[in-house]
C-alpha cells in the first residue's frame, strides 16, 4: 500500500518532465529547420554554410522574448516599411545579459520576422525572398548565425569572423546551447528520481 502513493508521485514527476520538455523541443525543431533552410539557400548560391554561434543565439533569444507579444504588422519583421521599425530602448541591457557590447556586434545583422504560427515555408521565404534580407544572406562576410523563435516571431542574427561582428565573448551560462539545457533537465529529473528511491528505503 505504501508503494502506491510513490508510484503516483513518480508518474506525476515523469509526466511533468515530459510535458515541460515539449515546447522546448518544438522551438528547437523550428530553429533547426530554419537553420537548415537558410544553409540550403546559401548552398544554392555556392556560398559557404553558416555555423551556429551560441552568443548570437543568446541575443536572438532575448530579442524573441521582447518581440513575442507584438502582433504581425507592416511595422514588424521582413515587410517593415522603412522608418516604422520598433525601437528597443533596452537593447544595451539585452547585450549585457549575453555579455556582449556594441563593439563586438556592430558588424552583425539582426533580422526579425513575424509569421502567424511560424509556418516553416513562410518563415524561410520571408528571409530568402523579402525585399531586404536576401542581400544579407547572400553576403560572403557572414559566417555564423544565431536563431531563436517565440510565438509568431523568428529572430535570425548573422555574425562575421571579425572581432567587430563575431559576437564574442559570452558567458557559458547565458549562451547555453539547447543540448546543454536538455542535459541539465535530465540530470534534474534523475536527481529527483534518486531522491524518491532514497526516501523509500
Ends distance: 15 Å
User: How many E-type strands?
Assistant: 4
At CATH level 3, the topology is: Pathogenesis-related Protein p14a
- The helix content, as a percent range, equals 40-55%
The H-and-E topology, N to C, reads as: HEHHEHHEEH
Point out poorly predicted stretches: 21-26, 170-200
Which CATH architecture would you pick? 3-Layer(aba) Sandwich
Notes on the structure:
- The structure is a single chain.
- With 201 residues, the chain is of the alpha+beta class.
- It has a single domain, classed as 3-Layer(aba) Sandwich (Pathogenesis-related Protein p14a).
- It contains 6 helices and 4 strands; from the N terminus they run αβααβααββα.
- The radius of gyration is 20 Å and the shape is globular.
- The two termini are 15 Å apart.
- Mean pLDDT is 77; it is low at 21-26 and 170-200.
Question: What keyword list fits this structure?
Answer:
At5g19230-like; Pathogenesis-related Protein p14a; four-stranded mixed sheet; alpha+beta; transmembrane helix; disordered C terminus; signal; globular; 201 residues; transmembrane
Helix and strand topology:
Elements: H1 3-44, E1 51-52, H2 54-67, H3 91-97, E2 109-114, H4 120-128, H5 133-137, E3 142-150, E4 153-160, H6 178-200
Parallel strand pairs: 1-3
Antiparallel strand pairs: 2-4, 3-4
Helix pairs in contact: 1-4, 1-6
Amino acid at each position: 500500500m505504501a508503494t502506491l502513493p510513490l508510484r503516483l508521485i513518480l508518474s506525476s514527476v515523469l509526466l511533468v518532465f515530459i510535458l515541460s520538455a515539449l515546447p522546448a523541443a518544438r522551438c528547437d525543431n523550428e530553429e533547426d529547420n530554419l537553420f537548415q533552410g537558410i544553409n540550403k539557400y546559401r548552398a544554392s548560391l555556392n556560398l559557404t554554410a553558416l555555423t551556429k554561434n551560441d552568443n548570437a543565439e543568446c541575443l536572438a533569444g532575448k530579442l524573441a522574448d521582447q518581440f513575442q507579444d507584438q502582433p504581425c504588422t507592416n511595422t514588424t519583421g521582413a515587410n517593415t516599411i522603412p522608418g516604422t521599425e520598433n525601437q528597443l530602448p533596452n537593447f544595451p541591457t539585452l547585450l549585457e545579459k549575453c555579455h556582449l557590447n556594441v563593439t563586438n556586434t556592430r558588424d552583425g545583422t539582426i533580422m526579425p520576422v513575424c509569421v502567424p504560427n511560424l509556418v516553416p515555408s513562410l518563415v524561410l521565404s520571408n528571409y530568402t525572398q523579402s525585399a531586404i534580407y536576401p542581400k544579407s544572406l547572400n553576403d560572403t562576410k557572414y559566417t555564423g548565425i544565431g536563431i531563436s523563435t517565440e510565438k509568431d516571431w523568428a529572430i535570425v542574427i548573422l555574425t562575421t569572423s571579425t572581432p567587430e561582428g563575431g559576437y564574442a565573448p559570452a558567458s557559458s551560462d547565458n549562451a547555453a546551447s539547447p543540448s546543454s539545457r536538455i542535459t541539465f533537465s535530465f540530470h534534474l529529473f534523475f536527481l529527483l528520481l534518486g531522491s524518491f528511491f532514497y526516501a523509500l528505503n
